[in-house]
């Protein structure tokens, strides 16, 4: 019997199909159908022109019952069991070759995995298969095949973007939690500054910005002590990203020395430090309104623009950062020009201290209420379309890690890496994952993960 090939022309050595991804298959389809336990029975019915009665079929498998109910659609043509398939309009008839169980994988390697398959989606792959072949449960088989394809999963995003609910972190006193970040590199100023160190208090929204000539860990640590801690005091907690200057041993030792709890954002998750990120965007807009065309004088505007920001009412607290930090509003040039409304007379220093203390308590309580309302409103808006998928230790996952590489076009990169394995669930949104037993673990956010459905999951973790 003549052998049948899924591809009739053998690719040449210069063809793009001449690689390990192009699967050559040579087999005797008639013989493979005869050796298949199910198709052998169906072929026997057609060869003998005999359809069994239902009592003989009722105890058989669902596959045989399927063929029995539709036996009129099957026919042996040139020795091959085929299925008659008509288009929806009935104007086109195709005879599909019935594929035995042991050749399904070969067909999908040709029509999906190979260069001529192109790793297309479920719908296109199913269309290619139906033009040529048939087997029981073909759609489900193709859906399962495409979902488990490692090449497709490493490139294509999930059908529904993962999104965990927002975790709230509310503070209730000044300097309870402070955010730090580096803005830059910026154009080198006349004074030689390239960077801007941003330090902001989560409760009062009081932000300090200091121009820097370098972002080295020693410079950042010294600036923090000289320009913030020496003026406002030691914060209970400092929250930063995973920049080398903040993760250095020098900065870590500084935090231990003065008893500061040091926390950090997760990888590729700037939303974790949203306060600093949002302020830097505001400061960029403010600076762009005043810098010269040569952009080398940006640092001289920073101190004055800080006055403008701190003296304005903050949307979350309902009061200005200066009033939150100092208990009063600061004088602006307009107050010196037109005069400021006089305060009531203070009979003594103790009365002034008592009034200031009462004012601070009232303002802070007012701000706490507004902060809680703002936090709840933000969470409600963010959680509108959440899609939470909880992972357990031992689950294989893909990790989204988009990185630009020199000489590599990002259009052809595969941003999903893996399969990683979840080694520990820190909370509902943070996981510790690891690529191998000798690889360094990573703490990542839920939104950067998706389930691994392939057949090559990690086996080293137990």
From TrEMBL:
Entries under InterPro entries matching the protein: Integrase_cat-core, Integrase_H2C2, Integrase_p58-like_C, Retrovirus_Pol_polyprotein, RNaseH-like_sf, RNaseH_sf
Single GO term (MF): nucleic acid binding
Domain Integrase catalytic: 170-329
Stored Pfam families: Integrase_H2C2, Integrase_p58_C, rve
Protein name according to UniProt: Integrase catalytic domain-containing protein
PROSITE patterns: INTEGRASE
Organism annotation: Mytilus coruscus (Sea mussel)
BP GO terms, sorted: DNA integration
Matching PANTHER family: INTEGRASE CATALYTIC DOMAIN-CONTAINING PROTEIN (PTHR37984:SF15), PROTEIN CBG26694 (PTHR37984)
Membrane-spanning parts: none
